[in-house]
Amino acid sequence: MAKILLVDDEKDIVTLIQFVLVKEGHNVRTAHNGLEALKSVGIEAGGSSPETPDVILMDMLMPVMDGHTACQKLSAHPVMGKVPVLVLTAKGTARDVFKDCANVAGYVDKPFDPKSLRDTVAAMVAQAPGLDRGPNQERKPGA
User: Fold this and answer.
1) Radius of gyration in angstroms for the set of CA atoms belonging to the chain, rounded to a whole number
2) CATH superfamily, with its number, for domain 3-127
3) Residue 64 in contact with residue 34, Cβ under 8 Å?
4) Which residue among 37, 38, 137, 138 is least crowded, i.e. fewest CB within 10 A of its CB?
């Protein structure tokens, strides 16, 4: 299915989300802060085998580099700026903070329901530009 980059510093959250998404057939790479995420996609030096994900799930509050700063850098990049970002946050005011990040496609408030998260990611994957869905996974008209 989709290549997903999951960025969160909370080990239990990463484990849960990764389990839910891998079970759905997605390839999930993880990073534990914004800087690790930027390295994993090749924006910052030091990453090994950079890869462009189809969707990014990004926590807001993390050490080293927060989600907002990472999202701004992703938005400014010619390729990564087109990858949709789903912001994971325990703060209801995150929508105001991320107004300047054009690639933010949605928000999930923590704590979240795994089924709801799965459905939200599925909807984002269906709309992700350039995703190779194969013959049985084409985008539906109007999606």
Assistant:
1) 14
2) Response regulator (3.40.50.2300)
3) yes
4) 138
